[in-house]
Amino acid sequence: MTKIKEVINEKLKEVLIENLHSLNNASSQNTINEMYEAMKSDTLHNQLDKFDKDKFREYCWNLAGYTGEEKTPLGYELKRRNRTFEQNVQKAITLYYAYLNKGDQFKIEFKNNKFMIPQTYIDGSKEANKNPDKKVVLPSSKIDEASQFVVSGTRKAITKKTPPATPEFIDTLTEAINNFAEALLSKNLVVNNTTLNYQELYTKFKNPNVVKKLEQHINFCQLLVSAYKSSEIAFNKSKGNGDPVDYMPDSRKLTSDTQEFKEFTPKFLLQAEAK
């Protein structure tokens, strides 16, 4: 039995790979539009009755050689998740799905690096309905809403916003570390997410303020770790006699570049032992 060779959408593959590895225009509507236009020429996923958004997303990821976040069994990060790439792909697929449903009736244009749509796609007001052909800019945040209206004629239900949950400390710390790592990647200081670009690194570090700032951050991180270890020792030494908070030094005196910081841990332990 002869196996039918799968025809790869080379244009889509090229656009996806370029977006995955380029951070210059990573979140631009131009990138989303390039993906969308390339998807329209796809011959493998152009039948609405067989189209599956999740499977098509996996197909796009595979074309780009992207697997998402990868971790070791112990939780160490091997490959960082590229959320911007994922969001761009998802928004392009959303537009493509609307196109599969309505074809040329999906009145979307791309002008001056922006999506333009009939105002009624995202605005159900009387004013908008009086002039249904009026074109307005489609923000990226409204792509899902506009596509939903085109496909089903319904609008996203307005729900009362619930206050966002307060992130756990570990989540806040992790996000800060990831943002810092992404900033390094965007400055070409790391190659292939793993190897340091030593020549570029040396060039950036020639500015003495860079080293000074990093040293301050290192001292601050050491302060946090020392505070935790010392508070744990003090808590154990208290044996339930009194509030462990009593052992904590005045946080207003704790600065990363003072003698107080350098002597913080010994003083803290002496206070605990004296109790």
Explain this structure:
The protein has two domains: 143 residues, no CATH class; 106 residues, no CATH class. With 275 residues, the chain is mostly helical. It is built from eleven helices and seven strands. Helix 1 packs across helix 3. A three-stranded antiparallel β-sheet has the order 3-4-5. A two-stranded antiparallel sheet has the order 1-2. It has a two-stranded antiparallel ribbon with strand order 6-7. About 8% of the residues have low confidence. The radius of gyration is 27 Å and the shape is elongated.
Summed over residues and divided by their number, the pLDDT gives a mean of 76
Alpha-carbon distance between the two ends: 84 Å
What number of structural domains do the residues give? 2
Task: Compute the number of strand runs.
Answer: 7
Question: What is the succession of H and E elements?
Answer: HHHEEHEEHEHHEEHHHH
Please mark out the parts with pLDDT under 50 across 5 or more consecutive residues, or reply none.
244-254, 260-270
Count of runs of 4 or more consecutive helical residues: 11
Order of strands in the sheet with the most strands? Answer: 3-4-5
Helix percent reads 40-55%
Rg of Cα set: 27 Å
Report the structural category. Answer: mainly alpha
Q: Beta-strand level of the residues, as a percent range?
A: 5-15%
